[in-house]
Design a protein that fits this description.
Elements: E1 8-13, H1 18-31, H2 39-49, E2 52-59, E3 67-78, E4 81-86, E5 97-98, H3 104-118, E6 124-128, E7 145-156, H4 161-166, H5 170-182, E8 185-188, H6 192-209, H7 216-225, E9 231-238, E10 241-251, E11 254-262, H8 271-285, E12 290-296, H9 302-309, E13 314-323, E14 333-334, H10 335-341, E15 353-355, E16 361-364
Parallel strand pairs: 4-6, 11-12
Antiparallel strand pairs: 1-2, 2-3, 3-4, 3-5, 6-13, 7-12, 7-13, 8-9, 9-10, 10-11, 14-16, 15-16
Helix pairs in contact: 5-8
Length: about 375
């Protein structure tokens, strides 16, 4: 058991302060955390959201020499109050970071109590469960809403090339073979020209389906860190040009499949299937254990779900845990106003909002 008398809870800004940074990085390594929890990514979130990155931290001694738990979050002030997400921006979900050598439920209770204590007067606060993390760890919290409409998916990278491809669905194997047969080539890259093509294809792809486009600031950040070992950029060539690409990030034993793009004029040669498979082989040789596909909402992304599933992806529902203090939607507010004020932040499940007929004015549903 943990000697709770020696435990101290601290709210620590993610800064360059040496003792905090060292203890936090050490915790990330011991706990097999995801890339989303790293100071590098959190500082990017500060820039892209205009918020401030903090962390609720738990130490096992008063000297703060050993951190055993943390919840990183980003806080954003707006017209309707302060919103907190762990974390904002396109499915960033670090969850709770807990030292595996300590009782998980006990540490989790301290962390959630501290997180909700900090955010008690905030407009809305949300923790996103880490994929394949035990949801029981979150049950001690006093949540207004629990949204479980998303599926986490990941592929275990097998020990041999043969094991990997034979774990795939037959359709995926056939498409990979087709791409090989027609001459599609795959390569990991770091050059600026390839990244520029990936950015252009992303804008075209997202605009075509009416989906949110990642901002230029994201590509500026990738451009700045493209030479660093954790940044993974790969492209597929066909004939004389790039026809598919992906951007991902490596941390510990997990690869984050962050952003794929494809030139739809060449989808018939299956470049994305081969690009993913050969990228998996590269990562496999690097000792990476998991390919994390991120979250998928089956209700609205059925084809995307099946595409990932056919790469031998295992799945688990994961949840958004949201606390809205004192039913802060006591006023009408437009969806556009919320999006403008708290861009990239999650505020409340759409299932819990009511739109007035003929307008985009929202109210939060009240329980009972």
């Amino acid at each position: 058991m943990i000697e709770t008398k020696t435990m101290s809870k601290w709210i620590s800004e993610l800064s360059n302060e040496a003792q905090f940074t060292m203890a936090y990085r050490d915790l990330l390594q011991r706990s097999k955390a995801l890339f989303y929890a790293t100071p590098k990514y959190l500082r990017f979130l500060e820039k892209v959201t205009g918020g401030k990155a903090w962390s609720v931290c738990l130490y096992d001694d008063l000297s703060q020499s050993k951190m055993i738990g943390a919840i990183p979050f980003v806080m954003k002030n707006g017209q309707h109050g302060t919103v907190v997400n762990s974390l904002p921006f396109f499915g960033s979900n670090p969850g709770m970071i807990i030292d595996p050598d300590y009782p998980q439920a006990e540490v989790a209770k301290y962390l959630i109590d501290a997180f909700q204590g900090v955010s008690r007067k905030f407009f809305s606060s949300t923790i996103i469960q880490r994929p394949f993390e035990d949801p029981v760890l979150y049950e001690n919290g006093q949540w207004s809403y629990i949204d479980q409409s998303r599926v986490a998916m990941r592929t275990k990278l097998k020990t041999t090339e043969t094991d990997l491809i034979f774990s795939f669905h037959g359709k995926t194997k056939n498409l990979i073979r087709k791409a090989y047969r027609v001459g599609v080539k795959v390569k990991r890259v770091r050059d600026l020209s390839s990244l520029k093509i990936i950015e252009r294809l992303h804008v075209i792809n997202m605009t075509a389906i009416g989906a949110p486009v990642k901002p230029p600031m994201f590509f500026d950040w990738v451009r700045d860190c493209r030479l660093e070992p954790e940044t993974f950029i790969a492209v597929a060539w066909y004939e004389k040009g790039i026809v598919a690409g992906l951007i991902g990030f490596i941390y510990g034993e997990t690869f984050e499949y962050f952003m794929p793009v494809v030139d739809h004029a060449y989808r018939n040669v299956a470049p994305m299937n081969l690009l993913i498979y050969e990228s998996m082989l590269i990562l496999q040789e690097m000792g990476i254990m998991y390919w994390n596909w991120g979250g998928t909402n089956r209700a609205t992304m059925e084809s995307v779900y099946h595409f990932k599933k056919r790469f031998a992806a295992e799945e688990q529902v994961y949840k958004y845990y949201t606390k809205i203090e004192e039913q802060s939607f006591d006023f009408p507010v437009s969806q556009k106003a919320l999006n403008d004020d708290y861009k990239y932040f999650f505020i409340a499940p759409y299932s819990q909002t009511i739109s007035c007929q003929g307008s985009d004015i929202l109210f939060l549903k009240r329980e009972g």
